[in-house]
Fold these 2 entries.
Entry 1:
Amino acid sequence: MSTQHISVTVNGQVREADVEPRLLLVHFLRDVLGLTGTHVGCDTSNCGACTVHVDGDSAKSCTMLAVQADGRRVTTIEGLSGGPGLHPLQQGFWDQHGLQCGFCTPGMIMQAAWLLGRDPDPSEQEIREGIAGNLCRCTGYVNIVKAIQQAAGELQAASEAPAETAGAAS
Amino acid sequence: MSDAQTPTTTPEVSGMGHSMKRKEDPRFIRGQGEYIDDVVLPNMLWMDIVRSPYAHAKINSIDASEALATPGVVAVITGKDLEAAGLHWMPTLAGDKQMVLPTDTVMYQAQEVAAVIAESRYAAADGAAAMYVDYDPLPVVVDPFKALEPDAPVLRPDRGPEKANNHIWHWESGDKAATDAALAASDRVIPLDVYIPRIHVASIETCGCIADWDPVREHLDFHVTSQAPHVYRTVISLVSGIPETKIRVKTHDIGGGFGGKVPVYPGYVIAIVASLTTGRPVKWIEDRSENLQADSFARDYHIHAELGVTDDGKVTGLKVKTVADHGYTDAAADPSKFPAGLFNVITGSYDMPQAFVEVDGVYTNKPPGGVAYRCSFRVTEAVHTIERLVDVAAGELGMDPAEFRFKNFIQPEQFPYHTATGWDYDSGDYPAALRKAMDIIGYADLRREQAEKRARGELMGIGISSFTEIVGAGPSHTFDIIGIKMFDSCEIRVHPTGSAIARLGVQSQGQGHETTYAQIIAEELGIPAKDITIEEGDTDTAPYGLGTYASRSTPVAGAATAIAARKIREKARLIAAHLLEASPDDLEWTNGKWSVKGSPDRFKTIQEIAFAAYTNLPQGMEAGLEATDYYDPPNLTFPFGSYICVVDIDKGTGQVKVRRFVAVDDCGNIINPMIVDGQIHGGLTMGLAPALYEEINYDDQGNNLAGTFMDYLLPTAIETPSWETDKTITPSPHHPLGAKGVGESATVGAPPAIANAVVDALWHLGVRHVDIPMTPQKVWAILQEKGVTT
């Protein structure tokens, strides 16, 4: 089968490959790049285990072709924190027992990151609606909601902190 | 019974009762878990499976020529190939047999028909799509009652002429004559027909494996999503003839199990054959449709029950007759002596003078059923039936369902309690749990609110479930699977510098074993839990165990862990006596130290003792500080709880909304309260799911009507209520830690609370029962029939 050359910026690094046009983005990430934090749970876009960010938008990578990501920026769970430390959402999931088997967790965290990017202070109902495209079979969602609330609080505090410092200085 | 548990260790040590954050989480939150599909071996091939579109058909021919000509395809395996090696059938855990690949007949839709082995995931799928199979459809039997009719097609002619029917087995429990007499003498007999439909565990990770046969070493590495790796090794050895010492089963991280990863699936055996044939590693990962259509199912029980009561509301006897639809083979994972699992725990939380239970297993053209769905061996079916029955009985007698329960509960002073079907409940305080749940939810106020709403024509219901679970299989005199007694095991080694490793025969699938077993050892030895590594799922290193299912890990392997630690503590006493130049009898154990009685400043810490175990031993003592325990539980444990659910029903759409749900659980002493709460949250959600949404049903041609997540509806965060949990603590008297299992309590207890709430909302309309799932369509149809309008 013929291949197509693609160039995708994945977690800040330009990654180039010749891929079959039918190759799913999730298989490009997992099988070609070895980024196995993004999981496959259903093949029908229902479960969200494969959620990544494409140009900052939440995307289910099992329902997108790798060639559609050509020239775009993709962020996966491996690149979320941008360094060795934990993103506030990763910390929140750990602190609040927001995961059990861990299989849905990367997709759930990526979806929550997208949600908090759009709405830094969501209500519980808005969080529940925001993650409704991500299925978890273990936790019953209660602690996932708490984890996202914890992260929202931390991210807000972090974004307000410089402004307060500036205010105090003046 | 108490309401709280005070830890005896410091947070630094984090023994029992501490909500220690999980040790396994740092890898999962970073996407660094290692699940089966993340494992890539050098030179690995891929397998894809061709499946039957028919529920029952004769295979005329299989043409693999085009598949074999497909780029990347290496081999095709059919039933005929396996037949040559005697591998086309394999035994099931229930003593039946099932096809690995068919040679002439397919028995259910999506059954494996052939396998294609190729150089890549996509090439294998291409090859599978290029396979041509010629079928002649045969008559399909999907209804187990029709399957029992004399003129029904015989689905399993391989059983021989003396079994020319579709009846698998008959099982009964209790005293039939005494129960008949009790019902005859009752003021009333309350009948109820309950169907518990087929459902599927649908763990978010599907099943999969890599078979890696090394032809030079003549050794099989088998990587697999298994809840019971040691049993897998034995089964693979028995089926394949490969010596058990030449097989290593390894599990990696598992993305949820819930019972669905107990059976040995045909795909696993085919992958092993593929690796034996090609001499290369072969990976097979099922997709979601394969998972929902072909993996083992749960439930599918057709139950008729009759409860005898007196006019003043005392239960007198219970009689239950059940038809169990097992699909085309009995591949249940129940203990050998229990073909219907522990279904005879159906007398529940009530002081039931007599009971008789009978179950008949039946073949149909469906995939094998009878595994759990986060439920310990058919307990959900039992609890649903008795909890629905007592509600109907209370309603018919004009009693409040809480009052009826209080009147019939086994009382705290009656424990240990021997049931009419032979179980010995270890401990419980059922009235306390129900009272607590009623206080938390404000039961009396809710009843007042309901009366006001009913007067206004609004539909609100309150449902109670006071369940008793039965977990921790099990005592060796009664419990085995394929003859192997249901013990479990732990081996602990304390290193010279005071840290430790423990290996167990069970297998976490999200339960947090790396944390909780470390906490048990921390409790017993005073070594901080963070310094203890827990390892499972490698049959080359871990002691043999039966695995994790049916909430048995804490009752059985947890006990083994405590006992192994205590053996180490006793050896540590001898070493400490040597170091302190004191008699072992003069030492006492407190907070991780052996100290001289009356001289608390003369002590040796477990870390000092561990170092001495390798450097400064008493004369004649073996070096090292390690112990192993294979624990044979003296009894099962009987966790319990009371749940109360409030629902509102939309009269226009029939939609049921769970407004509140209070769960008071009692699982005895608690290892990690945070993890127990998480287990209950998850269990409740897997109780909500079959109560309102999930069902695998079939049309009359045996077509699976819920084969994807677009049709099989798992609850999302929107449907799932914010669970309210609390607890009472009634320790198990026979468990070394006073603990009981908990992982499945909520799955068992929640569905009848929701069903009772829905029926309660509709009771005044004359509704006495609604089968689960109580979908909007089903409820709306009832409202139409009853003339309810918006």
Note: The helical segments of chain A are 25-32, 88-95, 105-118, 124-130, 142-169.
Entry 2:
Amino acid sequence: MSELLAIDLIKNLQVHQIWWDDSISEPVSIRDDAPPVDIETDVEVKGKWSPIKTERVDYRKKIVIVDGVRRIDAHLILGDTGRSALLGEFVVGVFSLEEGKVIKRVNECVIILPPGIRMKESLVIGKAEYLPISAVNATEEGVYSSFIQRMRERERELAYEFSKEDYIVIADGPLQVPFSEVGVTLGFIKSIRRPYLYGNYWNVVLGLKKGERTPIFIIRTGEDLPPKYSWYLRLKEPKYFESPLFGLVRLEAPSNLKIEYVQNLAQFSSGFLPYIISSSTLSNRAPENLAPLESLERRLRAMFHPIDHIRATLRSIIAQAYKEV
Amino acid sequence: MRVGIVLGTKDATPFEFYVEVDSTQSLQVDDIIVTSSEYPRFGKVKFYGIVDQVISRLEGLETNEQARFHSQGLFDANLTYYCHIVVTRTLAEDGTSPKVPPKPGSEVRLADTEETKLALYFDKMEKKKIPCGLLSNNAPAYLDLDFLLGIKGGHVNISGKSGVATKTSYATFLLYSYFSCLKEIMEAYPEIGTTNTHAVIFNVKGEDLLFLDKPNTKLSEKDRKMYEAMGLPAKPFESVKFYAPPRPKRGQYEMILPNTESRIEGVNTFAWTIREMVENDLLWYLFSPKELSDTSQLYLAIRMATNWLNREIKEGLAFHSMKSMILTLEERINDIMERVAIGTRDAFMRRLYRAEQEIGSLIVPEALPFEDTESYSIDWRKAQVNVVDIHRLSDRAKYFTVGAILKSIIAEKENTGTPWPLVFIVLDELNKYAPITGDSPIADIVLDIAERGRSLGIILIGAQQTASEVTHRVVSNASIRVCGNMDTSEAEHSVYGYLGPLNKKRVQYLTPGQMLVYQPDVPQTVLIQFPMPAWATRYQESIETGYIDKDFMISEIDMIREIEKDLGNEEK
């Protein structure tokens, strides 16, 4: 029954072409770290900066890590207009440092449709149920960006669910707008693509040793967006042949917190996170990918529906849809 | 009680499968389990099995590093706990045994007492069984008597290191179990008729077996409960006779006393006269297997000497000691062994002299005015259990004693022409009597019992530390094989094939009282635990009974020692 419905849905979409290749690179414009409008450097330390060293701590009570993984199952080119749609699946989950295991996993399959095209029902392929979502625009980038946004929303919801229960949430990636008004969520940014600081400030960042952090600063990204606290932290020192950005991460905290509290969070992050990093044998994004983060991502990836089955079924559905046209 | 489910990620077959244990439960090796699956042709099929391996691991991890992160609480993994099951039996509702696999996901339970019986085919044995220990779930394990008494098979072979509660203890426990069930056995086997069953135990170590008829006053409550669980009374043997060799270095007219230390009362002396030795053709056993294999012509010399002695004894010649026999032979050697080379004659005499030193004390004068020579022979029909203490004898004297006694038993059984009454022979150190290499009269007789004993009604309960050093025909003829603690390197020998690869690895972890028992109709070797003896194994264990007066014992021994000392002084 669901197959007939799927054939019908595919027929209505006028699927013209399918790309199975999911190695498509992320369009630059949808990167999370939006360019800053303004930086305030004298939040924690007035005047000249120097690295802040912290003693090692092992505090795990009520600390969770939230992350998500995604997979593109198929790109669809619709009709003759070149508009594209996307079938994808993502899984978001929570790793509890207190319990040492993944405590929650949620997965969702979506079909991202260009604006103007509507599907009344979910597209069911095998056991996967693709929920129709409208993209921001009809381009490939727009469709992809909507897919990422959908996952980010789910991550944020999960982070909120835990932060309102007094957990400290470490979320992968920059803090999602809007930040949760309740509890504490820390953004953990592994890829330093854009320097937020310049001159001597940036030199301090590059000179950080393991376990050292910069003083806290404030980032403003737009008039209508709330500012964020941020600091750089060195997880591991680079060897002579490695980039000075190796082992460097940036953290973010919501600006509705008191600076004293954010200072504690910063101390905690630099006293704890450098000691739970992954190694190069564990993760190809080591050391920035924390060991529990890597563990969480692996467990999340295990939740994906089997891709071979989905593609074979989809191929058969499309073939039948063509036959009936 | 549910313990888990049939694992779906590993092959389940009619012969083996895996069980994933519930996180709130545990399974250990030797546990007996049961599961069931529906099949169109057969209906509900029950699967009975034994856990032979338990495995725990972190699933989904690829490297040790990840496991280390897991231990630090930084990496999630699924802790899985699963067991390998050897299927012992499949049973459909109509009683057939379809060879189908259990279905993954089927609920697995621990077997109860009734299911344990089904799992190990004890139901098929009906009444033809005796308890042989307790299983890990404290249910009794049984031996199939058809394979013990020579009906479908016979003989028991026990391997394992020496120590407390090992080979001999288990052999005596099996005998005890047998004699305790004798009434039921006689009902189950009408062919036994009214005959009793007998046992001859050769005691090769210490004087542990000299108290079989005394209760063990130190028996713990736990052991008593074990007897109870098997439906056996915790009592000593009822009908026992003890035999020990005579004390050596005695004078010609001195009293012949058994050479035992911890017990004299009720112990008989066994010995032979030269007439008995010659008439029963026992001269062979005066020579060690090595001596016989070194000089091939020695056989001829022994045969000629025996023939000559036979003739002379019939004509009235009598010897009072072995020495007198040797001197006579030496005097007449040229007449007796005309055809034998001089070198062989010398070798024969040399070896006879050497034998005299070790065996001479087992020879008693033929006719004493105050003693009846009959009293020195062993009559195994007079008691259920006959303990022959040979532990103080030299190897050569042991060969002689064991060879002479076994030979007489075989001869007697051959004459009667019926296997009943049965006689059990308990013989430890089989590697000495029937070694894997070499040929000797004693090895021949042990082999003869192993191969022909079933039809004669002679059942060998043989034991040895290392079965790999015993001639394979003796071991392979034993239907029931038992294995106690031993080195894993020994267990690697093919003779222990019945253990299976996993049991071979665990033999070194067996504790006293634990045995792995294999019998033909049960497809898996099972681990059993048997209790400490309900009879005393030391004088101290028997004393609270008041049966032996300690002071009396000591004074008697002292008295005999005094006499010996005096006699020694006189000789000087």
Note: Residues 31-62+166-276 of chain A form one domain.
